[in-house]
Amino acid sequence: MAVLSLAILAFQSEDPARAGQDDAPGKQGASASGDKGQSSAKDVDTEHLFGFTEGADAGEKGEQEVVLDTISRFGKRAAGPGGSRYRVLDTKLGYQFNPIDKLSIELGAFGNLRTSRNIVGLDDKSYGTFDGISVEVKYQFLKGSAEQPLGLAVELRPRFSRVLPIEGNGADIFDMESVLQLDVQIVPNKLWYGGNLSFEPAAGRQLGNGPGYRSSTLLWSNALVARIGENTYLGPELRYLRGYAGTFLNKLESEALFLGPALHHRFTEKTWLTVAYAGQVRGRDTGPDLTGRRLGLDQFERQNLRVKFGMEF
Questions:
Q1: Of residues 95 and 31, more confidently modeled
Q2: pLDDT classification of 264: cutoffs 50, 70, 90
Q3: Nearest-CA neighbor of 233 among 273, 270, 260, 182?
Q4: CB atoms < 10 A from the CB of 237, how many?
């Protein structure tokens, strides 16, 4: 509630004296200032603005970017008495470039660091390893602005992974996430909405003589971000996820609702930082041994934290 209040106050606040100057006839300086504010609204890059949710902006021809993106996942159901721990850090180092306007391509390499102890259905383990590569291709159909507030893009994210995402066992996994991304300038230069709809099927096999692996995930995320400073943006983010056995949403295993704040700050015109936290506030598992238990912890975690740093050149 505190984050939402900050978002509302940020776009409602206005200097009355300044407003009077803008309305006064012959005040060319105030008019020029208004034009400048309108122009800066167009310059806000929404791609990394919303935390876990991705904005629709894709950039212009010739732009390049290096991104370090870490998503930490904490907390699962304990298998018994005594201390338990589940902690996974998924880190991606990505290089993004734009061969033409509105089309971006990102090449990524992943690392995985995890600790699991006394967790239901999981073996105890602690290690770090290289976890595969990815290619992300994004095309922007609409660019949001003060005059036309809707931004719309589609992104495809094929990825090869070497580790099962929950269990942590060695495997050869291929997944293909498809994401519909949109954003809206609700109040020009002050308040933005971002939304994603994602489908991610995955298939492969565990190493050695391990069993085959088939899963799919459906995601719907929403974020509302306000400008609270010249280069700082803050607001709440809500995500709903459903995890399935089978590559085409065959059998529901878990569902979870996450809520938390998202912060974006630009240090310079070319460097930025995004930090987002999400705690699971509601969920369920469908397994017979887990029916009626609080939260969806079979396929998801209690808490997620994302820290993303980027440099454009």
A1: 95
A2: very high
A3: 273
A4: 24
Residues 214-230 pLDDT 10s: 999 999 999 999 999 99
pLDDT of residue 289: 87
DSSP string, 44-67: ---TTSBTTBPPS----TT-EEEE
Contact 274, 263 (CB under 8 A): yes
DSSP state at residue 179: E
- What distance in Å separates the CA atoms of residue 172 and residue 206, rounded to the nearest whole number? 6
What does CATH list as the number for 2-312?
2.40.160.40
What are 118's two structure tokens? 């006394």
Calpha distance 299→57 (Å, rounded):
30
Residue ranges covered by each domain of the chain: 2-312
CA of 42: how far to CAs of 163, 264, 270, 271, in Å?
Answer: 41, 17, 16, 18
Neighbours of 201 (CB within 10 A): 18
- Tell me the HSE value of 189 on the side-chain side, using a 13 A CA sphere: 15
**pLDDT at res. 274:** 98
